[in-house]
Amino acid sequence: MRYMILMITVIMMLTGCTSEVDLASDPAATKIITPSPSEPYIQTDEGVEEMKILSLEPSLHIEQLQNDSDRMPIVEVRSNIEIDKKSFEKALQDSLVKSVNTTDLNYYMEWVSPTFVQIRFHISDENVFSFIFNLDQARTVDGREYKNKELHNYNEVVVLYNNIQPSLSLYNPSTNERKLVPVWDSSSIKVITEKNKQAPSILFYGENHHYLYDPQKDHTYAIAAAPMQQDWYGNDYGNHEWYSDRFYSNYTYLMLGNKIIYKIDLENFKMEQIYVSDKPIYGMSSSPDGSKIVLLLPENHYLGPFSEIIVLDNKGKVILEQQIPPYGAGSDGFLFGYKVSWLDNENIIIPAQSTRSNPSGSLIFNIKSKQLMELETPTLTSQIIDDILQNELIPIDSIIPRFFWSPDQKMAAFQLEENQIWVYNSVDRSFHFVGVGTLLVWLPEGDLVWTNTKKSIYTF
User: Fold this and answer.
1) Which candidate, 183, 129, 117, places its Cα nearest to that of 159?
2) CA–CA separation, 102 vs 251, rounded Å?
3) Can you name the residues that pair with 173 across neighbouring β-strands?
């Protein structure tokens, strides 16, 4: 329609006509008045200005600030086109999710101009608090939405407590319910399987304390951090402690300084040293029954690309040493953490290069047969790959290593560039953008969990 309008305008200008075109059939406009050829096209004519407005794609620029006096958040929103105030206020109200439902959140909209509004928020108490809203459904005065089809997170606003405190989103695609939980600023996060608990917990590493969040109880436990020692290995992921990905009834295992393995009594936090490595350790995990520990190490002291695994019993005795294929860790002297875990009490999941045939980037090592095989899990089927490419969510040569099926195997979550998180529905083969952050885990009830932060989070 807009191209037809432009062609009509050009024809009229070439024939020297000055007339009025009725655009009642176009929901985005009413009429356009064309200037005569003798008049400069850039003059401030009402019709020319209206044409310029209609040629713009509606866009919002959102910036977060903080009130200096009371440290309450301020969100400034600027538009390139005049905003419809009622739709703007409704979009904010309908999409607002608070981390503490019982806490009052008041806000005042100060319209500085028809294209500029300041939203001043006030929180009723000093509880740790975060909230989120989305302005996709807001409209311009001529009825167009601000939703961006390419940048799906463009109008989502996550307001952090004191502009620092991050949060977790728990979202159920089946019920469309979302919960927001304030958490701790951390560059390293680990998903923990706890014995006798259906839902996993999430461990946030900190400098003086670590925090274990239990989503079933909606409760957090603080764990004291161990002091740094001089004879430990330095690393490039910024944390000298590495807990096992499994917690048992009253104990777990801990690696300190990429060197020493401890068994920890979780009731009184007593540490029992069971193993000291003469090489830096890249990864550590304990078996489901707690009887064995696997360590991932370089082949030599020079942090080369080759690697090996060592399996210990729960007293620290070496059961098995085995060289495994290269996986690209630790080259050029860098020490990063790599995820290693147990599929069951005999099979270890070790990191490998992601390929189209093995998108998970994992191999299975059996400690009895000492055989390696690809990890067979319901990851990316050919149908899902075709659907993803048809919807142009990723380039055709891309690989998606982080892809998690929901507990009922009907939906799958995956993470793309710019930390965009999507959910795929295998029943109707549809895709749904749900947020931005670091994808963590599905809960048994069908909630998907991710961190609401755009910075890089290390998960291992």
Assistant:
1) 129
2) 36
3) none
Number of H helices, E strands in the chain: 4, 35
C-alpha of 176 from chain center: 18
Beta-carbon contacts of residue 142 (< 8 Å; ≥ 6 apart)? 28, 29, 53, 54, 81
Q: Which residues pair with 67 in a beta bridge?
A: none
DSSP string, 134-194: E-TT-BBTTS-B---SS-TTTTEEEEPBTTTB-EEEEEETTTTEEEEEE----SEEEEEEE
Q: What is the DSSP string of 395-451?
A: -TT-----EEE-TTSSEEEEE-GGGEEEEEETTTTEEEEEEESEEEEE-TTS-EEEE
Residue 116 has a CB neighbour count (10 Å cut-off) of 14
Choose from 38-47, 144-153, 323-332, 356-365 the range with maximum mean pLDDT: 144-153
Within 10 angstroms of residue 71's Cβ, the number of other Cβ atoms is 12
* pTM for this model (two decimals): 0.72
What's the rounded Cα separation, in Å, for the pair 338 and 374? 17
pLDDT at 330 over 70: no
Highest average pLDDT, of 98-102, 185-189, 312-316, comes from: 312-316
| Residue 400: CB atoms within 10 Å | 20
Under 8 Å between Cβ of 399 and 355: yes
What burial class does residue 101 get, using C-beta atoms within 10 Å of its C-beta: 0-12 exposed, 13-18 middle, 19+ buried? Answer: exposed
The phi, psi pair for 74, rounded to 5°, reads -130, 130
* Lowest-pLDDT choice from 30-44, 191-205, 424-438: 30-44
Report the distance separating Cα 200 and Cα 442, nearest Å.
9
Query: Residue 295, class by beta-carbon neighbours within 10 Å (0-12 exposed, 13-18 middle, 19+ buried)?
Result: buried
One DSSP character per residue, 54-106 reads HTSPP-EEEEEEE-TTT--EEEEEEESS-B-HHHHHHHHHHH-EESSTTS-EE
Q: What is the rounded distance in angstroms from the CA atom of residue 294 to the CA atom of residue 320? A: 9
Strand-pairing partners, residue 445, are: none
248, 263 contact by CB (below 8 A) = no
CA distance 98 to 22: 47
Token output for 88: 């703007």
Nearest alpha-carbon partner for 261 in 237, 235, 217, 296: 296
How far apart are alpha carbons 155 and 431 in whole angstroms? Answer: 19
In our burial notation (b when 16+ CB lie closer than 10 A, e otherwise), range 8-37 reads ebeebbeeeeeeeeebeebeebeebebbee
Bridge partner list, 404: 413
Cβ(282)–Cβ(297) below 8 Å: yes
